[in-house]
What does this fold into?
Amino acid sequence: MNKTVFITGATAGFGEACARKFAANSYNVIITGRRRDRLEQLAAELTRTFSVAVLPLAFDVRNREQVLKMIGSLEEPWKQIDVLVNNAGLAVGKDRFDQASLDDWDTMVDTNLKGFAYVAQAVAKRMIPHKRGHIINLGSVAAKQVYAQGNMYCATKHAVEALSQAMRIDLLPYHIKVTAIHPGAADTEFSTVRFKGDRIAAEKVYDGLIPLVAADVAETIFYCTTLPEHVCINDLVITCTQQADCFYDHRE
Ligand code: NDP
Ligand code: 8X3
It folds into this structure.
């Protein structure tokens, strides 16, 4: 029987690439995000290309009731989730601490921290009765270091790091693996969202770099799910070869 993966943020970037990678490897996929049209297009493509079952679910991870309803009401054959890719997230703005918008901060906390935790808990509850499962959380190099004007984004990603450790400890009795993946600069819609549609500012982030692309991160995430039952990659940092961490890169 095919396994099932539940992916948040599947309308773009890492989540979309994960949907393709897992479907190509015969997983049935639950794809989620707010943009319903993109979910429907992707669902049609995956069904056609890979002959797997696909369930598109449009919801906002910030809405606790929606998260609980969507995940709590899954029926056969979607009830048993083998892998969660807990990926939906964003940076909004890149401003000094004293100048940053409180609305931007709220959006990041509500999405990257609270929404992230709501989804993880709801899916963990589905995994617990089966005493198996794999939760893959998207952190960032910003979970490891704090850079100038990264304030609240870095704080939410440090929280992802902390909550990944917390999940790993508390879910030990249920044989649930918890992997935190921490990418560096990756060319997705991330920077366009961060700079609120300013394409020039977004493109500057990758100037002189051959950055990661979404498929690189999806390959790595998928690899983590292929290890034997008794082996878990707990924490993994992945950057492009020209980037060492948040502070050092070599642009040509
Ligand atoms: P993208 O902007 O390309 O994709 C983000 C995804 O998150 C979209 O599918 C979006 O869907 C979804 N999303 C955002 N807000 C919500 C919400 N409130 N409810 C539901 N879904 C939401 O970014 P990436 O793929 O690059 O980023 C994915 C994750 O990886 C994020 O957590 C990000 O912080 C992290 N990351 C990114 C890096 C990068 O350089 N790109 C590096 C390190 C980590 P929709 O808008 O349809 O809701
Ligand atoms: C995204 C990577 O360096 O912009 O998490 O924070 S960075």
Q: What stands out?
A: The chain has a mean pLDDT of 98.
